[in-house]
Fold:
Amino acid sequence: MPASKAILVSVTVDAPKAIEIFRIPAWCPGYYQIAQYQRKMFDIQAADEGGHVLPIENLDPRSWKVQSTGGGKLIFSYKVLGDDAGLGFFGVNVTVDKAFVNGAAGFVYVDDRQTEDVDLTVRNPAGWDIATAMDAKGDQGFKAGGYDEFIDHPIQLGVFQRKKFKVQGVPFEVIFVSNKNKPNCDMDAEAERLRIVSGPALKMFGSSSFKRYLYILHLAIGNFSGGLEHRACNVQAVADTPELHLDDLAAHEYFHAWNVKQIRPQILGPFDYTSPQRTANLWFAEGVTDYYAKLDTFQSGLQSEAWLRAQILEQIQELQQGATRKELTVEQSSRRCWDSDGFGVGDLSYYVKGLLAGFLFDAAIIDATDGKKTLDDVMRLLYREHKLPKPGYGEDELRIAINETAGADLSDLYRRMIRSTEELPYDLLLRIGLRVTLSTSTESALDSPSSPSGSCAGFSLDLDPSASPRAKSLFQVWLHRLNSVE
Structure:
């Protein structure tokens, strides 16, 4: 409905019970903040298959109770205002020649029926294209194995450009969506960079849970700049510039197809969409994902070793410049992010400290196993044991998996980095031939949360000039880990 800047949604329930309850999610998986999707819904109606109007009771702002006549079909319909900023991201966006639907914002679920298969039929305006990673069913039809899967496939409609490629035999597609329908970038060159950066994670895990993968590039920034992961695709909102070079942003969202969408805390799938779902392990879900985004961008050949070390150094500086690291653990930051901006608490980001914790666990595992194993082996272990439809991991299971992989008890290291406010043990990096150096002013800043942020400018991350032959060898293991993966 481009003219009204809205989408019309009609939900058909087969063999309804006497009372059915419909709900719109209170949050969107991947973004740990309460949303107000119900405020965009209007013209809510219910009818039986004969067209007879059925009474609706609004139980709360996000749920509606419908009294059915029983048997046959129940049709619950509504419209969603498509005013999400930019080209759409967390919500629904509708313009004269395109539309975007983030599933959590556009589609209700029915209580006690979330695991039932879902069929979707899209009625597009003439000439509009459609892109989604959902399995196709017929001519403009799609299917999903339950509500969780269904809403984890955003839908792009209208005018956009496509580029296709394969990575290790898996089909990939990139769609470029822009306001003027003529992106400023070289689409072939950008698609090639995405092809290259998509290789390392697939090689590391050896397989994927997706049959195809879709990059949705929104070349406009609304209320959010960055990316959001989904089960077999991701959406990125970036400026429409001549060079995108998404590289580690794309690698981050793509790596989530394994870490978060498959390897996940128990509470993050199957989902409870009615309230905040708190876990202590967002540092692993997001921070370790960001660590691999940097590693995979380097391993793809798109960036240099110097770039990789510079990226990690930036995270060290950001963490050490903050004061909240002295007050809260990264587990506490993970749990409490719902009450803050979704990315941490105060200046303690679980992305940043999680990335550094992943780096240090990686170094510890390499050292403990004489280079025979890395953090990659933890990821593969967790993927084998927890990929869907298996349950997610327990709140203490990451520690257990790290110890199992290392063949040593790293519980005290885990406690220090994850469950305490002690400083991270950067000297651990000496074991793999790296050295973090702090200036005198920086060292004093570690003991003073009120120190000015500029006092941390003296950090450096370099090769250790006095590294032993063993440490130099382990550095090569860290840097070129995929060389041993067939």
Q: What stands out?
A: The CA atoms of residues 329 and 343 lie 14 Å apart. The chain has three domains: 2-158, 161-255, 282-484. The first strand starts at residue 6 and ends at 14.
